[in-house]
Design brief:
This protein is mainly α and about 170 residues long. The protein folds into two domains: about 100 residues, hpI Integrase, Chain A (Orthogonal Bundle), CATH 1.10.443; about 60 residues. About 50% of the residues lie in helices and about 10% in strands. A three-stranded antiparallel β-sheet has the order 1-2-5, with no helix packed on it. A two-stranded antiparallel sheet has the order 3-4. α3 runs antiparallel to α4. The radius of gyration is 20 Å and the shape is elongated. The model has no long low-confidence stretch (mean pLDDT about 90).
Length: about 170
Amino acid sequence: MAALRWNRVDLDAHRLSVSTSIEQTLRGMREKPPKNGKARSIALPALVVEELRRHRISQAEQLLALGVRQADDTHICLREDGSPWPPRVLTYAFARLIRASGLTKVRLHDLRHGHATHLLVANTHPKVVQERLGHANIQLTLDTYSHVLPSMQEDAATTIDAAMRAALKRR
């Protein structure tokens, strides 16, 4: 999220390209390829595209007030002074937001796990989930999210039961 720039989002096509991540070291921040070394393209829901359009306009206005023109390579997540958020600071800001909201404690990275879990529970094909998360192989996705698979087993049994009953009725 800290590495995401406007030139990696195609709002018209509803797509986001993940081609870099930011690593925070003792010497500062540096961009690097994703963990698996491969860029990926993710389809965005219409609601997210609408919010990103609003955010882009708001960000452009805020930057102009600072005397800075928004460019295609501008980071999407900026601090009030127009500088990019270091990953650690973004994580701490999210934690403060969660504490202030009174919500159950959740880490920023937990949103990624929640996203994958919800997709799998909604019967999204695991290969699609793997691609969205950028996992190098499907086995990592299945091993990590196997806790949602038991409910999927019941769903499969229900589907098979319905098919068998329909076949018997036709007989």
